[in-house]
Predict the structure.
Amino acid sequence: MRAGFLLHRIARGGYTLNMDAELKSRLMSALFDKPLVTNTFRGTLVEAMLTQVLEPEWRWCSADWASHDFENGDGVRLEVKQSAALQSWYGDGFPPNRGRFDIAARKVRWEGKCRIEQAGRVASIYIFAWHPVTDVDRADNREPKQWQFHIVRSDALPPQKTITHSKLSAIVEAVGIEEVPAKLRQALS
């Protein structure tokens, strides 16, 4: 079971194995009680933050090998990508990350356990979350107000495998988490 899916299920109270409250608490503490969250779990953290401003209009549907992260009532698919200037393994002498996001078109998509041959990008719109704080004493991935969000329609993305944060900034201005729903509606209209 992929770790992000596990956390999604635990956070939503849907994990069915015998996991008592103390074990859940220890797991969540081990994964999220540090300001710089490891790459493996940071994506799930950002998606959870976004549920606070996107639900109920958007349903959080990422799980395991899901081809997208959110879907609205009209069936519009949204994918969240994230990166951070500082990594959990950051130390003296390491330069901050400049930010790079995977935007590669895929050959297949997944719906649960079903593999579907479908070339291209599955999501109609992307939210690129960037954590720019480089001050080690101040950086906290768990703080929604420290994140910047770039909302881009998939048809506005270049036909390449990755995109840098600087290229995203040239396409669209970043907004804070409170502005995401309005910018998302604007991008869809």
Summary: The mean pLDDT is 87.
